[in-house]
Every structure is written in C-alpha cells, then in structure tokens.
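Dear U.,

Please find below the material for section 3 of the report. The protein was modelled together with magnesium ion; I have listed the sequence and SMILES used, followed by the predicted complex structure.
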Amino acid sequence: MADARPAATPVSADAENAPALGELLAEMTRARHWSTRLFNLQRQGRIGTTAPIDGEEAAVVGSAAAMDPAVDWAVPQYREPVGLGRFGEAVLRHTILYHSGHPDAGRYPAGVHVFPTQISIAAQIPHAVGLAWGMRLRRQPGVVLCYFGDGASSEGDFYEAANLAGVVRAPVILFCINNGWAISTPVRGQTAADSFAGKAAAAGIAGERVDGNDVVAVLEATAAARRRAAAGEGPTLIEAVTYRMGPHTTADDPTRYVPPDELELWRARDPIARLRRRLEEEGGWDDARQRALEEDADRRFDAALAAADATPLRTDCFIDSAYAQPTPELERQRRILGDAEAR
Amino acid sequence: MADARPAATPVSADAENAPALGELLAEMTRARHWSTRLFNLQRQGRIGTTAPIDGEEAAVVGSAAAMDPAVDWAVPQYREPVGLGRFGEAVLRHTILYHSGHPDAGRYPAGVHVFPTQISIAAQIPHAVGLAWGMRLRRQPGVVLCYFGDGASSEGDFYEAANLAGVVRAPVILFCINNGWAISTPVRGQTAADSFAGKAAAAGIAGERVDGNDVVAVLEATAAARRRAAAGEGPTLIEAVTYRMGPHTTADDPTRYVPPDELELWRARDPIARLRRRLEEEGGWDDARQRALEEDADRRFDAALAAADATPLRTDCFIDSAYAQPTPELERQRRILGDAEAR
Amino acid sequence: MPVMTMLEAIRHTLHEEMARDERVMVLGQDVATLGGVFRATEGLRDRFGAERVVDMPLAEAAIVGASLGLAWSGMVPVAEIQFLGFTQQAFHQVAGQLARIRARTGGDRGCAATIRAPFGGGVRAPELHSDSLEAQFAQCPGLKIVAPASAADARGLLASAIRDPDPVLYLEPLRGYRAVKDEVPEGDHTVPLGQAREVRHGDDCVIIAWSAMVHTCLRAAAEVEAATGASVGVLDLRSLVPLDVESIVAAAVRTGRVVVAQEAPPTAGFASEVVTVVQENAFYSLEAPVARVSGFDTPYPPGMLEEHWVPDSHRVAAAVRRTLEARA
Amino acid sequence: MPVMTMLEAIRHTLHEEMARDERVMVLGQDVATLGGVFRATEGLRDRFGAERVVDMPLAEAAIVGASLGLAWSGMVPVAEIQFLGFTQQAFHQVAGQLARIRARTGGDRGCAATIRAPFGGGVRAPELHSDSLEAQFAQCPGLKIVAPASAADARGLLASAIRDPDPVLYLEPLRGYRAVKDEVPEGDHTVPLGQAREVRHGDDCVIIAWSAMVHTCLRAAAEVEAATGASVGVLDLRSLVPLDVESIVAAAVRTGRVVVAQEAPPTAGFASEVVTVVQENAFYSLEAPVARVSGFDTPYPPGMLEEHWVPDSHRVAAAVRRTLEARA
Ligand SMILES: Cc1ncc(C[n+]2csc(CCOP(=O)(O)OP(=O)(O)O)c2C)c(N)n1
Ligand SMILES: Cc1ncc(C[n+]2csc(CCOP(=O)(O)OP(=O)(O)O)c2C)c(N)n1
Ligand SMILES: [Mg+2]
Ligand SMILES: [Mg+2]
C-alpha cells in the first residue's frame, strides 16, 4: 500500500473501517489493470479464457470495501475475483491459477474468506445463503456477500436461495451486478421485471438499487445491508446498475451485438475515471500517484504470476482431490495413470 | 345438467359465457362430492392415495369457469382435476384412473384440453408457459390456465417459468392456490414475501390476489386475466387465498400440525356453504335442488367409476408407452416379461 | 440387541448423531413439525430445537445447495429429500456442486453433507416416487452412495455417512421402511462405506444386489436351493460408491456364476457397472455369462402394473437357474 | 459431396430443417442475435425471424420445460443448452418430464423436442464445460441419446432427431466442432437413430466408441495395426439410446476381442452398459475380457491436467494390445 499513497478522504459515516477514497481508487485501478494483464496473457496463449471486469470495478470494489475480511465471506461468480484484493493478497494469485487451469486455483489459504470461482451461473447463491445461515447457527459474527449477474437472476437457484434467505433471515447480501448483458442477451431479454432489485419482493427481503458506477454509493448501500444482516435484520438484495465495457470473455466478439452508442454512453460514465476526476479535483490525486499505483499494481501482478507459475503441479493430483481419501478404485486408477505416463 | 337445474343468476359482465351461479354451485358441489367418494374408495383400499379438494372448490371451479374449454387449456398439479369437469366429462373418469394407478390416466380423449396430473411440484408451470407461447406462435386463440400451490411457488420452476412468461408475453394465467399449507409447512415457513401475488413483480407480470373462497371474485379475476392474455397483454399471476380444510392426502394426519381454531375459522368460510346460502337467500336454491344435484353427482361418479373399472389393462403396455415405437431392446424385454408372466 | 424396523433404525441414528455432535442438523420438507412424511425424523425437533431441525421451503435445489454452505460454516447437514425422484430438481447442486466442491478446492475443502431419500417400488406410490434412480447419481464423481438393506446397516451406514467428510447420498428403501426388521447393535455402531456384506453364503452361484432387492434375492436363492440343491449366495453391496470390488471379485471367482439384480431399468443401470467389474476382474473364472435382472427400459409404471415391472424372486430365480445351467 | 466441419453440418441441418418445416424453432441462450457461442445457429434468426429463433433467459429448466409445452402446441422445438454440464439445471425437466410425458399419457402424446448440447474435453475449457455426462441421461427411459462423430452423421442424426416424435438429447463434441471435417451427402440426408456404423473394419479386435473418442480410437487402431499387424476395427455407436445391440454383438462375435472406450469416468459410465451387452450376448465368443478405457472417477480436471485425464490413442492402443495378447 505504501507506494500507492491513497488519498485519505473519508468515505462515509455508514461504513466504519471502510477504506478511504484513494484506497478505493487504487483497488479499482488494480482490478482493471490486473484484468487487462490477464486478458493479455490469454492473448499470448499463456492462460485460458478470462472475463474482463472493465466497467464493473466500482460495483465489486465498493461492495467488498464494506466487508470485514476477517469475519465476512465473499462468494463470487467468475468476473469479480480480480476485484476482491481486499480479501487477501492470495486472491490475485489464485485468480491467475484459475485462468491457467491449475487445480489449486480454489485452494485458498486458510483465512482467505473467498469461495472458489463458480462457473455454473447462480449455483453459488444457495451456498452463500447456507453459509450465512450456518454462521449464525454457529454464533459466528460474519456476513456473506454473494455476487451474481443480471443473467444469473433468471436461474431458479437465485430465486430459491433468496426465498430461503428470507425465511431463515440469513445474514447474506445478494449482490446483483447488472452490467446490461448476459453474453449477448440484454436485460430486456432476461426479464420483464422493472428492476432486479425489485425481485426482492418475491423473497420478502429488502431490495435496493444503486448506481453501480458510484463506488461510494455502492459502499454505503452494502455497508447498510451488512449492518442490517449482522444485526439479525435479514438479507438484502442489492442491484448495482453498471455496464460491461468489454467483451463477455476473451472468446467473445461484442461488436456483433453491443450498440456502439450505448457503449459510448457508458464509457463516459467509467467508474474509475469518475472517481479519479473527483479525487484530482479535490487535490487528493495526481499523475505521480497514478504512476506509482500502476507500477505497484504491475509489481504485484508480476509477483503473483511468478508465484502462480511456481505452484507445483502433480499430474495425478486429481486422484487425490475428488474425495478426502481416494477410493480403492481411484488408487487402482492412479496406477493406470502411472502406466500411461510411463509410456 | 338437467337434473341439477342450476339457478340462473348471471355472474358477471366480465365473464362472457360464464356459467350461472347455480351451475358454479353445482360444479363445486360435485367436486367436493367426488373428492369425498375418492377418499372413501381409498379408505376401502380400492384406489391409492388421493388429495382431497375440500375448501378449494371456489378457487378451482371459479377459475375454470372463466375459460373456454374448446380453445383453452388447463394444466393442473394433482388436487384440482376433480374440479375441472368443465373441461369434459372424461376428466372425472381419468381422475379415478389416476388414483387407481391405471396407465391410461393421462390419456385424455382428443379435445379434452387438460394436461395429465403432475406429481412433481411446479414442474408443470414451464410446460404451461411453453404451451401458451406455442399457441400464440401457431396463431391459435387459446389461453392456458396453470394451477399450482403456495408450496410450489418456492420451486425454481415457478420462478423461471413466470419470468419467461413475462419475457415472451405468453397468454398464460399462473393460478396459485394458496391453501395455507404445503403438507405440514404453513405459508410463513414457505416464504417471507407479503403475498404470493406479489411475486409477480419478480417476473414483471400482472399479479392479483383474490378471495379464493368467493367463486365470483375468482371467476372475475380469471376472466379479466384471460381477456388480457388473449389480447396479447401478457400473463397474470393470480393468488387465490383459500384453505385446505382436509388432510394433505389420504396418507396425512393434519391433526399433528393444523391449529384447530384456524381450521374452524376457515370452515366457517366454506366456499360451498357460502354460495349456497347466497343462492338460497336469493331463492335460487333449495333442498330439492341440492338433493337432485347430489344424486346426479353420485350417478355420474358411479358411471365414471364403472367406465374406469372397465378400462382395459394390458400388462405389457408400459413397453409400448415409453416411446412412440418400442426400441428393439424393449421388444426383447417384452419377451422377458412374457416369460415371467408365463411362469 | 434390540430389533428395529429400518425406519426405527434411521430415526434412532438421527437421534444418536444429533446427540453426539451438536453441529449435526436435519433439514428438509416437513421434517420438523410433522417428523417427516414417514416419521423418520420424529421427535428430533422437540429434542434438539427448531434451529437444528428445520422445515424447509419446497425447493430441493435450495435444500441441497444450502447444505454446502452450511457444511462450510462447520455445520453437519443431513438433508432429507422427500422422494429420490425429487432430487432431480437438485441434480445440478448434487452433481455439479456438492460432489465437485472438493476437487474445485484442490482437495482442500469438501462438503460433509448427507442427503437422505427414500426410493424404490412396491408400495403403489404415485409417479416419480418409486423409480430407482441410483445410477443417475453413480456417475457423479465426488459423491458417495449407500443403499442399506437391513436395519443394522441402516444404522451403521447412516452414522458413517453423517461422519464422512464427503457428500453421501443415503438411499432408503420405501418398501423396507416398516417391512424390514432385524437386530441392531447397541451403542455406537458404524458400518464403513465401501464394504459389501455376504448375506447368504453360496458356492455355486452368487446373486449381487443392494437395498430392497437383497430380500427379493434371498427369497430367490432359497427357492433355487430348495428346487435344485444348488448352493446360492447373496452379496449385499450396501455401498455403490465406493464399490467393494474385492468382495465382488472374490465371490465371482469362488462361484464362477454371477447374477446381478436391480430394480432399475437395465440400460445404464448400476448393475451394468457390477457386471463390468466382474468380467474385468474375474473373466477367467466365469463359467457362464453374468446375468442381469432389472426392471424395464421405461419409467416405473403406475401402481396397477408395478408387480409386473419390479423384478420378483421368480424372475431372479429364473436367472439363477439359467446361469447354473449354462455350459461352462 | 461438400466437405464440412461438424459445426457447419449442424448449422446447415438447422437451416434445412427450419426451411423444411415451419413448426421447427430454435431456442436457447445467445442463439439468435449472436448465432450461438459457437455460431452453430448463425444466420437462423435473420432467415427465419425472431419468433422462431429465440434468445432465452438464462434458465435451463425453463428452456427445456417450455419445450415440452411448445411441442404440445404443435411446434417442434430444438433447444440449445450452452454446455452439457448445464443440462443438470434442467435435469428434472429432461429426466422427470420430457422423457416421461409419453408414458404419463399412456403412450398417447410424446414430446418431439431436441436438446442440443456440446460436451467433452480437449479444448481446455473451464469447469463443467468438458465433462462427458451422457451416462447421467442414459438411464432416463423415454429419452433418446445420439452422439455423432462425423459431419455426415452430425447432419443425418440431427435431421432424424428433429423429426423424431420423442425427445432426443443430441450431443456435440466440443473438440470436433471445427477439427472434424468430412463429406456430407447433399439433399435430404437422415441417419436412423439406433444404428451403429463400422468406421474401420477389423477381424482381430474391435474398439467401440462414440463421439470424439471415435477419432482417438481410429488412431489407436492404426497404431496397433502398424505395430503388430493385427486387424483392429472401430465401431461408432452414434446412438446410445436406442442402442444397436445387434451390430455390437456381431462385431464381438466376429472378433472375440472387444475394447470399449469412453471419455467419461469409468464408474457407471455408458461403457459399462456396452461391456454388459457384449458379455450378455457374446460371452461364448469372447477370447479375452472386454476392456474398458475411460477417464477417471473424478470430475474432469482443470485445463492443465486434461491431457493426463482424457484417454488418448496410446491408452486405447495399450488396452487393445492387452486384449489381443490375452490368452483365449
Ligand atoms: C448454469 C449455466 N448456464 C449457462 C452458462 C453459460 N454462460 C456463461 S456466462 C453466461 C452469462 C452470464 O451473465 P450474467 O449472469 O449477467 O453475468 P456476466 O457475465 O454479465 O458477469 C452464460 C449464459 C453457465 N456458465 N452456467
Ligand atoms: C418436486 C417435488 N418435491 C416434493 C414433493 C412432495 N410433496 C408432495 S405435495 C407437497 C406439498 C405441496 O404443497 P402446495 O404446492 O402448497 O400444494 P397443496 O398440496 O397445498 O395443494 C410436497 C412437498 C413433490 N411431489 N414434488
Ligand atoms: Mg451480466
Ligand atoms: Mg398448499
């Protein structure tokens, strides 16, 4: 952190312990920077498909900033992890491992309260509700922050989990990132509902819509939801209205379906540029800080990449990771694998 | 019908072609009568589990009365068919076949627009939406009336289907019979939502709550929803608030969980008694009519039961009904079956 | 040792496990106030409280999916799905999530959840209540599957399933709930997952089965032995995943003649896996093709037809006799 | 005859079938505007309109469940599920509803829907995109399952699937989409469901496979033949349900030595069904145990490990050689 020297402007009374604005800008900048580096690694053929975060940094960083990584949990889909640095230095390394196709990607170190990347849309939402409910049953203090997209809101898992959260009053925040698109399907093709936040009514839980490109608004809404959840007042569905400024993934060609003028409109609302402008106006940010931040981000990425590259890979590790103990059949299969490798 | 001589009080301007009040009373009375006869057959060991309709007659009969059986479809769960006489004389016979465990139960004669009884809770809702959507694509005039319970509303299938209905503006009526219970689980254990009708917001469709024990109110709400659907104005979720006055099924002991005072309260609101009182006050009903109606109901049930009992049963029919043509393997299996029967 | 029905053994075990470990909780439709539609969870709510015995909304995917999260919080969820047919609503959570979460964490964190569900025919239940769907779950690596046939094993396997660090699908035979009664060891009785049990010794032929079919096979073995004098054994797999390949192969090698009996449809049923294991490992000992007795390649039929559909002891016995008569 | 990739053949067939029958419609995630994430449905929306080519909300159970209703309205739905792994979200609709609706109506009314989904490994896709889950669906009586390995069969089987009065799960090999290219008959080409195809004749041993594994097996057969001179055939099942038992048994009887190769995990994979069918019907012709080559009893691994997991031609060849060397 030292290098980046974040501006110290306090964010909000609502979010105690929340990072200062400069730190939010730093985290958002890093998220985009790292996402871009991942994108480039994919283009170089060094890693597999990635899902750029561009445009959604305020939604992810702002919500994470409201949480206490020591007791709270983040349950992501797949686009957010690069913005979850607040939950631990290890998150970036594991995100690189994930996109590299390394089997240890989801093996977060103890104390990093992040669920492994979820590829099955919305399947993580019941997990998050169960985790939050269980933490309350175990008299643990934390709150669970669960991310998912506008598209994910169409899955039965979203609704079933939200409804259950309402019934058991689980201390969970269902954080819907409405980025306008589910691959090529726009929001109006996803639902006829007025808003995603409005879907909270179906679960009898609190629902709130927030400008997802305003990091402070996101942070405040999440902090308020967290306070309610922690106080036993039940779950909240937050819809962060934002925009996917890049392709769905490195495999996507959004020019086939994204209206250019709509994209331009949202580029003008870029959450990072917006916050940076504000800080610059307030005198809390300048080019030097920006350069230092970017250099720091690069150094961290390089370090994480080196650590990821150095992560050992046993070719038979899948034999050991399906069950706590391999079954006798799996031990037999380990020998088949050994024979094959020997050839 | 001749025997029952229904009172001719017109029901509502909203529901053209709707039956007169006396006919509604007759249909409701038959539904309960037939449900009771099924219950007794189960108690005699002649048929399997049944799910009594007691208390829900106005919801089922009133909604069905708004439909045009020549072009519309009914897609039931399992409790409603006994009240769907409007869709054809055959429905009762097939309901008896169903509870008898006869393989032809779901083989409705052509022109009877009723889906087979659905045991998997909420699984019929996407079917109903698809059917309604397809009818519009095929430029057919009908509307689909889909029944399900308060419990069913917790399934992902309900929500996914409702959301899809909103997106494609399917001419469907999602008719939620809130009878207070899903087996032993009361509504407050099912959802924290204020109402089931309110769940329509999550799908962006019209939602309406209606007194499910007031047959006219049910009929009017359904007729209005039908008119909107037919006019291309999209689907409606109707919640009919009523009460399950009997056990969940013949296998259930509701005294273990139904509060007696609550049951008493609802018994006092019995939809059949209520309508009968009204008609008697208006001079459109008397004991003679009632007797004639009950005798007619019995005769019809006896006839349907005789027809059901006379329905042929081939012991290898399951070989023929899995696919349009049995696979070669199934033909081989038919021989195994033959050998076993020969022993 | 007390004699119990399978249902009593299950209920007893749930009581014992909840008393043993306060992290164990029971969740499902109608499990608390009603004590389950078969009363398997009766008395639990009164004894252990509404926090640990929970009536769930009617949403199987949420029941199973929440169990994963509960497990990660440190609870030990025992979820009941009212009938195995309705685990299909949760299939993506069982197969795609619970079974895979350990692999997804590089082996680090599993999901110590148990999913109980009754299944199988013979009680004229409505559609989707009777189908034997175990094979649909047998190809979900990461999941374990047990299917006891006796009250003693119901007790021992349920205790093991609950204590197992991986997700276990625990299958209860509908028609065995009250009909099957036997002596259940007192005290803390567990049966390790992955061990078959020789229920009846036989030297000329062995019938392999699991769950309710074990009893059908015992009758068939007795019928054949009475009629022909041949010595026919019955091996109860008890556990489908992990599978006790060693006991299966030993029995096949010893007898040279094997019949595998299941209630499920033949195509891609679990019996095919057992047949494959036998012929892979005991090919040179086989004196006859391994016979498979199954239902039919159709959905489980409505009540009026079920006796024609479910393999009975005569069909099993006929397969045993054909197998005994086959030339070596 | 024009040469096409499998992807082109599928796209071509969709165009042809939609042109042939105006009741045919295509629905799924991203199938309309985008033309599918693999472009399998490209051009359909522009040609046939937004009513018949529909981008669906992200809800697999609704896509599949609505297809049943659409079919009952007289439409002929061809649903795309973006990856086979996500059919699990719709499993209750596939297995519990579409597959059973005909039996539920006493044989009267089926569901003429086709469900297309890509599957299989080799392209380093993320989790749940590569698993071979065909066996999870093989025990869903009422459902048919096809898995073409060539562009010509992709064309012919898709046309048959769409015209079939019963629901068909149509499996497309991810790694074959662009890599597999062959001549596709012009005009109205159909391949009947339930007929295997001899892709390579062999007298000493036959390898049985389906979908992408057919190509692995062809390489293995050539390797073994080159190394040993043995004549090794390959039988492409093409259709898993219904299964061409006759061709399987004929090949087994002729060669006496059979290897079944699948990409799926071994336990309860579809290969076990094939092994069972062989030993049930050709036991006395077998000169060696039927060998099974499979993935492992684990979830399909992350990209870095997939080459170790997916059976390659060397693993298949090794099994063939063991089978050829086994004493009779
Ligand atoms: C259950 C499931 N169905 C389909 C897919 C394929 N898929 C991957 S991403 C995606 C769109 C997701 O959209 P959204 O939830 O809005 O998230 P976003 O990509 O916009 O962050 C789809 C359909 C999947 N991964 N999982
Ligand atoms: C998918 C599924 N899950 C569970 C069951 C078992 N079950 C049968 S009826 C029922 C309660 C249904 O409640 P509701 O939808 O309110 O309908 P009601 O019985 O009140 O008419 C349950 C849980 C089932 N049949 N299907
Ligand atoms: Mg989105
Ligand atoms: Mg109810």
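For the text of the report, you could mention the following: Residues 125 and 158 of chain A are 6 Å apart (CA to CA).

Regards,
Y.
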